[in-house]
Design goal:
2 copies of one chain form a homodimer. Chain A has 259 residues and is α+β, with helices and mostly antiparallel strands. Chain A has helices at residues 11-14, 18-24, 82-86, 108-117, 119-145, 148-161, 172-179, 183-195, 211-217, 221-232, and strands at 29-33, 38-40, 48-52, 56-62, 68-74, 94-99, 101-107, 167-168, 199-201, 206-208. In chain A, the strands form 3 sheets. Chain A has a 4-stranded antiparallel beta sheet. The first copy, chain A, has a 3-stranded antiparallel beta sheet with strand order 1-7-3. In chain A, strands 8-10-9 form a 3-stranded antiparallel beta sheet. In chain A, a hairpin with a 5-residue loop joins strand 4 (56-62) and strand 5 (68-74). In chain A, helix 4 (108-117) packs across helix 5 (119-145) and helix 5 packs antiparallel against helix 10 (221-232). The longest helix of chain A has 27 residues, at 119-145. The first copy, chain A, is globular and about 55 Å long. The termini of chain A are far apart. Mean pLDDT of chain A is 88; it is low at 236-249. Chains A and B meet through strand 5, helix 5 and helix 10 of A and strand 5, helix 5 and helix 10 of B. The structure holds a DNA duplex (30 and 30 nucleotides).
Chain lengths: 259, 259
DNA sequence: GCATCTGTGTGCCATAGCGAACACAAACTT
DNA sequence: AAGTTTGTGTTCGCTATGGCACACAGATGC
């Protein structure tokens, strides 16, 4: 019962030289992540780190009053739990599964051990950390200067890059938590995009019809961050696998505290 | 002509065990940084990294249209140029000297070399990188959810922590570039704080009279980030040296592109 | 088939922050 | 001492977004 692991499905894993991968493989396990699952709480320890394949995880910063904002997105391009190898142990961000799917997971401790010993792994993971920082700083400016429509476009593009198809399964309510705006704001923005024929949506399902136009209406942030990520991690490729979605429900409290 | 270096003036340096410090010391040089000096351009390489003592450096993200926002502040608690040891080489942020003073500087390459060889140094610098990330993610939420007054308070507190006295030398125009808001917005907020007897200011000089009240009016962000930094880097202490300010002028273009 | 829940549409008002224009006074220059 | 530059105060209108309340329709369950 030795399962064949298709580690190519995660770009960080795929970018590792085979000796290194041999080292890690015995410790990797493919797990299913369900929608809304919380992989890490703000300030909490993580026993495991996760390399998503077809799942998507959001790092959220949740304020005392329950308001929130997405700080970065992690899909098949990255790993959830960088504070585990950076040495801090925990971070201020909550990690929530935003799109159900699978991820290779591994004991944090093992990754840290290997990280400390292997310069190649170190370089790779630190570059990834840097690309996360690029995302974070972009969020800060974007939140300050760009409109909801622009941000929705940027956000959708980020999702598309991490999904096998052009269909984002997400209610406007949840999107609003990601963007840190009102649900009505999202309804409004999504309405505009739909009228422009760029997307088509109904009840928790957004289909992107015209990616080019979406990019045109997005703020510069998407392109800038994408380019920086590509620079830092040359091998990133679009996700090609089939997507299996659970029908698990996300509880509101997973995204924001009680109001 | 061997100058005695008071490396305790920078907390990262001060936190290093003495063997390590012995290693680095020959390569450290104390330099004066003048107001508005650009230490790193977005996407540009850095020949040197800087450990500020009594100077303060801002990391800014500047948009295509010239609008900007401060992503994080670096004073005697940190180092400018983390992308140099993280392996990315450059970052998306511009590093601008915001408060003139001095910094220990060192060839990036040397720091990277030592970083790769010395686990203690590595741990220290990676923890610092993590505390920067905490700052960044806080900025993102703060920009989204908090008022200008709250943010001004938070920002002033951050400055105070890195200054030897309670006087921030900075025009409202420049502060507005940091917060990513209009100058008038800052005038307004500062006016309110002055009326409340919390600060006192005139023409590029803000004196903080009541730090406690300032903290009370600030958003939670200040405290959260401070606490996280303290957790990650236990030894941080307030800056005690005398501050020598140059009278160099900052040109507007250092903060934001031509409009 | 009926009740219920959940996701979306809409309208109304309040307000924070933007853009622009301009007045004024402190500081610097000569 | 006079002119110039620089930093701040103020005003007016505008827009994006927030808060709230509620209607409505697709989905789900009994």
């Amino acid at each position: 019962m030795y399962k064949k692991l298709q580690v190519q499905q995660n770009n960080l894993l795929a970018a590792m030289p085979s000796e290194l991968l041999m080292c890690l493989k015995p410790h990797l396990e493919l797990k299913s992540l369900s929608l809304g699952q919380v992989l890490a709480e703000s300030g909490g320890l993580m026993r495991y780190v996760y390399f998503p394949t077809n799942s998507i995880v959001s790092l959220l910063y949740v304020l005392e009053n329950g308001a929130s904002a997405e700080i970065s997105v992690i899909g098949n391009d990255g790993v959830v739990g960088i504070s585990q190898y950076m040495g801090g142990g925990s971070s201020l961000n909550r990690a929530v599964v935003q799109s159900a799917g699978q991820a290779y997971c591994m004991l944090s401790r093992r990754l840290k051990n290997e990280f400390d010993r292997n310069p190649v792994l170190q370089d790779l993971l630190l570059r990834y950390a840097q690309s996360l920082m690029a995302q974070m700083s972009q969020r800060a400016v974007c939140n300050r200067h760009h409109t909801i429509v622009q941000q929705l476009c940027r956000w959708l593009l980020g999702e598309l890059d991490r999904l096998p198809n052009n269909e984002v399964k997400m209610t406007q309510e949840i999107i609003s938590n990601m963007l840190g705006v009102r649900r009505e704001g999202v309804t409004d923005a999504a309405g505009k995009l739909q009228q422009a024929g760029i997307i088509e949506y109904s009840r928790g399902r957004i289909r992107v019809l015209d990616r080019a136009k979406l990019q045109a209406m997005s703020c510069e942030c998407y392109a800038v961050v994408k380019q920086e990520s590509d620079r830092l991690l040359p091998q990133v490729q679009p996700c090609q696998m089939a997507l299996e979605l659970d029908s698990h429900q996300a509880e509101p409290w997973m995204y924001s505290a009680a109001r």
